Amino acid sequence: MNANQILLDSRPEGLPTADNFKQTSVQLPAITKGEFLVKNLWMSVDPYMRGRMIDRESYIAPFQIGQVLEGGSIGEVIESNNPQFPIGTRVSAMHGWRSHYVTDGSEHTRLPNTPMSESHFLGVLGMPGMTAWTGLTRIAALKEGDTLFVSGAAGAVGSVVCQLGKLMGAKVVASVGSDEKAAYLRDLGVDAVINYQTTKDLSAALKQAAPQGIDVYFENVGGEHLTAALNNMNDHGRIAVCGMISQYNDTAPTPGPNNLGMIIIKKLKIEGFIVFEHWDHYPEFAKKMGQWLATGTVKAEQTIYQGLEQAPAAFIGLFEGKNRGKMLVKLD
Amino acid sequence: MNANQILLDSRPEGLPTADNFKQTSVQLPAITKGEFLVKNLWMSVDPYMRGRMIDRESYIAPFQIGQVLEGGSIGEVIESNNPQFPIGTRVSAMHGWRSHYVTDGSEHTRLPNTPMSESHFLGVLGMPGMTAWTGLTRIAALKEGDTLFVSGAAGAVGSVVCQLGKLMGAKVVASVGSDEKAAYLRDLGVDAVINYQTTKDLSAALKQAAPQGIDVYFENVGGEHLTAALNNMNDHGRIAVCGMISQYNDTAPTPGPNNLGMIIIKKLKIEGFIVFEHWDHYPEFAKKMGQWLATGTVKAEQTIYQGLEQAPAAFIGLFEGKNRGKMLVKLD
């Protein structure tokens, strides 16, 4: 059995290009006792993977040049010597960027039977959805009546943050990068949308969208968005720092906001988080989110690229704003 | 009875100068029923007052041009029609920058009898001491075995933070602006001192002083100090943001640290605070600190300028690093 897979061929400088990736074919070994063969159905591309392409110490080890990339995946067992994972089992794992692989099942999760597409376990029911939930509940402690500002609001995390924010009784102000995304966010029921690409003064636009001020900022973007948020935070506001995608492709460090004094003046709390440290409340989250999805209370948008060879384009597209909701690659 | 007092004559641009202040004399009215006359003995100058000289919204109203400045004061009742404040009572209030004043006693605190100088109620037993205590206990939750980094470490707040840090079982790394201050900090028992004025690479110096990383950063300075701290924080580190004195005299906004991504990578918590919101635990603090002072466990350094007319120089001196411990003005 041959597997197609995508390697990191060189470390990107700035925005990744197709040249940083290399598709290869490898012959898989026959499965031995306890092992099984998985055919991947879906793989995830996520902004955090850009950080793993840099050779540095972080909360997760860097990708190595010449090695297969990793990321969230959903697959089906097509050959098995492991009674825990019989043929036909659907599994989620961190084995994306390849068509097939052999495993003993460690760090594999069996997916429950659900009428929904299993792809949602890479999105709203998976890491991005849990990130939204964790940031709002555990980090920022959003409460009814708060005003919530969300940057990167049309993305896999942001679009769930917006919807959960409304469900939790907040007024939601969203920032996106196109009018088409703005319309999508309005359809999701947010109270105000800013298209930052056509906005000259983001602080002023935010003040206009939320004259009562911001209680919680869900930070996905960094830079100018953080500056604008700081200018518009209310006293004792909370900032849950999930990502700073505007800076992931910087070739030189970007200076931070020039208004950090607001942290003192407004007595703000700013907290970064990594969702994997909060996985203990995944069962609670999955139960709630499963119901919200089933009833249509939460809508799970996806942008789907077709075929493993499209994975680099899908990944690069994350930084070009090409996705609405979760960016996914469907494998053939 | 004539009182001497100092007005804000113009708003400073950059570092304040003597020209921003004006000393005048005013005739005080006779005291009526319920009122008393106070002769000030001590007044406090503090970095936060620079913020009040800017005409902007903040947690405290700006000073107005042509009006007497305000700030912490210790005085003695020398005439009284108020049985709560008989002649000889020592009071603390926010009535600095003047020699005498008439009051009905609202927002005045009677000082307890203590063998120590009453001036400590403007320092280690007052707002700066409480700020140190609040930042370490309520904001940063310093615990035994933590490594604590303190900037502005020779100041009224910083010097107490360092001593409390040692008392709480932390390893303490201090940053100061002169070798003489460094020696003072070493005498106080801190584990390592950096003179940032003679240090080329503050991040590298901090890494050398604390190779095990920083768990808590007590932020008094901002700018390069914050950058260096972010580079050296451990996972789940906490930053208590008390002040950013390096920026108080900026005539244009200074860009922030270019490494805010560390907030995510290291899952940091950064929190600004204003001590007056935490005054509910002042009695607990005062009891502990009173004992520490009495036993010499905490040492209360003071830099004293003599005479009301020296108050502007004392205030300006705060930004020139002229104080060691609490900067005070002793009135004649």
TrEMBL record, chains A, B:
InterPro entries: ADH-like_C, ADH_N_2, ER, GroES-like_sf, MDR_fam, NAD(P)-bd_dom_sf. It comes from the Bacteria. Residues 51-329 form the Enoyl reductase (ER) domain. Keywords: Oxidoreductase. The keyword Oxidoreductase applies. It holds the Pfam family ADH_N_2. SMART domains: PKS_ER. GO terms for molecular function: oxidoreductase activity, acting on the CH-CH group of donors, NAD or NADP as acceptor. PANTHER family: PROSTAGLANDIN REDUCTASE (PTHR43205), PROSTAGLANDIN REDUCTASE 1 (PTHR43205:SF7). This is Hypothetical alcohol dehydrogenase, zinc-containing.
